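Posted in: Structural Biology > Protein-Ligand Complexes

Title: Requesting predicted complex, coenzyme A in pocket

I'd be grateful if someone could produce the 3D structure tokens for the following input. Sequence and ligand are given below.
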Amino acid sequence: MTPTIRRIVPEDWARARDLRLAALADPAAAVAFLDTLEVASARPDEFWIDRTARASHGGEALQLLAEDGGVLVGTVTVLVQGAGSADYFGAIIPERRAILVGVYVEPAARGTGLIGELVERACAWSREQGLAALHLDVHADNPRARAAYERLGFRATGHVLETAAGHEVQMVRAL
Ligand SMILES: CC(C)(COP(=O)(O)OP(=O)(O)OC[C@H]1O[C@@H](n2cnc3c(N)ncnc32)[C@H](O)[C@@H]1OP(=O)(O)O)[C@@H](O)C(=O)NCCC(=O)NCCS
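-- Reply #1 --
Done. Output follows.
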């Protein structure tokens, strides 16, 4: 079956939480996500309800879900960050921008092109918000994700952040 891609709705919160916990249990999680399974598992329902609601409407956040036969098999999120706000690592963002985060495709759906469809939808939405580029940070030691992003048109900006978790390579795709 071909997965369908749609924006998250508030009623998805528990399934979206479970997908996130599956992502955080992935062997690549340490280089893929800033969050940990331990911390995320302890979050109350209100956290997931609020996060899902914010990504389900409006122009500040978009979470896309890929669903196959009633099962969630992938997700990406776009966050629109305002000029002057701080990014995850504390750096001030000079101008309003869109950043791709929370990228996950379940193992059985990898290598199928699904990540490309999710990214194209994320790019289209970002364009609709008036943005000219989509940014992301990828860990230097996550070669599969880096290869996928390169294939999908993202290019390294030349900025590499040194974080507690290692080196984060900044990439951007013009929209
Ligand atoms: C990152 C992710 C979404 C990519 O989706 P995917 O379906 O696996 O990606 P694809 O298979 O389309 O592309 C991966 C590419 O890396 C290649 N690859 C696989 N393993 C690799 C490795 N160890 N080193 C280098 N390249 C590798 C694949 O051959 C493929 O190459 P291609 O573009 O020439 O086809 C998915 O692997 C995933 O969810 N990983 C775990 C979470 C994660 O890392 N998220 C990203 C956080 S920034």
